[in-house]
Amino acid sequence: MKIAVCVSHVPDTATKVIISDDSKTIDPNGVTYIVNPYDELAIEEALNTKEKVGGEVVVISLGTDANKETIKKALAMGVDTGVLLKDSNFRDSVSLAKALAEEIKTQEAELVFFGKQAVDYDNSITGQLAAEFLGYNCVSVVTDFNLEDNKITAEREIEGGKEVVETLLPTVITTQKGLNEPRYASLKGIMAAKRKIIEEKDATPFDNKIEVLQMKKPDGKQPGKIIGSDASAVAELVRLLKEEAKVI
Amino acid sequence: MANKILVVLEQREGQLKKVSFEVAKAGSDLASKLSCDVEAVIVGSDITDINKIGNYGISKVTHLRNSEFANYSASGYSQAVSDFVKEINADVLIIGNTSMGKDLAPRITAKLDGGIAMDVTALEVDGGEIIATRPIYAGKALIDVKVNSDIKVFTIRPNVFNPGEPNDSLAEVSTKDVDVNLKDKVVETKQASGKLDVAEASIIVSGGRGMKDAESFKLVEDLAEVLGAAVGASRAVVDAGWRPHGEQVGQTGKTVSPNLYVALGISGAIQHLAGMRSSKYIVAINKDADAPIFQVADYGITGDVFEVVPALIEELKK
Question: What are phi and psi of B57, to 5 degrees?
Fold first, then answer.
């Protein structure tokens, strides 16, 4: 079976966000880019599945040459081949998902893994959109995944619990923490990755439906009162919460 | 310009969820700013008290009914709502940014070839156009966006759009039985009984590494219980295996905006602050007076959590 995993290349979560002069993007100076943390779970689950049922795993990423770093990391973890869909323009989730769906179709992948969200724009919808454009089933925010023949049983996180969902291939799964522990690339894996092919092609353009008008910093929160330094401060704290903040 | 706003309500086990009141109010407020119509839809099997949504400014609601709709199904719900949008000719959809909404909204958007803005914290109108504000980078920055498509879908962050006090109006409910062909089905729900989720709670008590170990974390649960709060955790605590991933607050966890956020033994890494700084009130208790958490706290106690928290629990019980 052909398995695809879609990954994004994002600023490290420790990044201090500085807004560029255009007021629409972040200033990339000094920013370290990493594999989107949720996508590591997607890569791991694709590899686990291949180890169980056989087949081939392809990693797909849309962006600039810089995304090759993220593709290489997936190849070093054990993914078989990579595809870079080249595009340096801003894409909203719909336009991104359409281009990814087109490539998934070209690859004839029946099972597709996405991280449940990218930690830059935090949309958490690319996988579901791609599934819909492909006419595939989809289970999002998955913390447990089982495939038997063409039947999928997946556990997805909901408020205060989990729900167990059954569906059939072809399917898109979006991955959540708790699903697995992503492996580290071995030295052998890193060496092997150097011989693996990254196919490069121009990403098909699609219209953006979202227009970013401006990017801004949230209102600065001012440090408040230090009420005390030991247990004697609790009475005053409770009074403030009741009378000033009125939240309890 | 908008023709008609449709708010998508949410139920669990046949009861309207609190976020339904928030989408109702957000939808009716937006409709008055745009001078357009607004109505509501809800998908489910047996649902009680749907007409109470009238308390929050919605006078008309349609229940799309099928016995297979008792639990959420992405394929079933998205088809039913998309068909209904076409039928009533709605062009703006407002949905809660919940586990259901985050799954459902993109499916509807794709079916209707629309555009979508997720996790919106403000909806304004400027020159007849809807401007949505949403946090990115887990709240380290915000963007204002416009949706340039005929169908515009917005999911709104729970706990941000205040539904206000209910009035005594009731909505007119019509029930429409719909056919389904579910391609995905919930076969079991594992709900931790009575457990509040951080994403929905109006009060959160979170613990960090300063809680020392998994056993001592009980103190966080005790305070949460007294306050009727959900339990949250920092990434360090989740990575150490003391607490489940579902409780993690911050980037790579949940981004939350409760009325009150109590941080116990949390130093305040940039990823954590991003995820909770939009809370309305923040209390920090940490013995390290230089901890970054105090930079965002409204009220701070620079003391040992193991002394201060038991005293706080006693004081609250008075």
Answer: 95, 10
pTM of the model: 0.93
Residues 52-71 of A with CB under 8 A from B: none
Q: A47: Cβ–Cβ under 8 A, 6 or more apart, which residues?
A: A57, A77, A78, A79, A183
Q: How many CB atoms lie within 10 A of CB A145?
A: 21
The answer to whether A62 and A96 have CB atoms below 8 angstroms apart is: yes
Cβ burial of A198 (10 Å; 0-12, 13-18, 19+) is: middle
Say if the Cβ atoms of A216 and B191 lie within 8 Å. Answer: no
In this structure, the strands spanning A9-11 and A33-35 are antiparallel
pLDDT at residue B15 greater than cutoff 60: yes
Q: With 60 as the cut, is the pLDDT of residue B152 above it?
A: yes
How far, in Å, are A96, B80, B133, B197 from residue A158 at the CA level? Answer: 26, 21, 25, 9
pLDDT above 60 (res B193): no
Query: Among candidates B275, B283, B231, B228, which has minimal Cα distance to B252?
Result: B275
Return the DSSP state at A243: I
Q: Identify which of B161, B129, B200, B166 has the alpha carbon closest to the alpha carbon of residue B23.
A: B161
Please give the single-letter amino acid code of residue B282.
Answer: I
In the DSSP assignment, the letter for residue A138 is E
Q: Are B200 and B159 in contact (CB under 8 A)?
A: yes
Ranges of chain A with pLDDT below 70: none
Contact residues, B window 253-312, toward A, CB-based 8 Å cutoff? 253, 255, 259-260, 270-271, 277-278, 280-283, 289, 294-304, 307-308, 310-312
Prior bond of A223 cis (ω within 30°): no
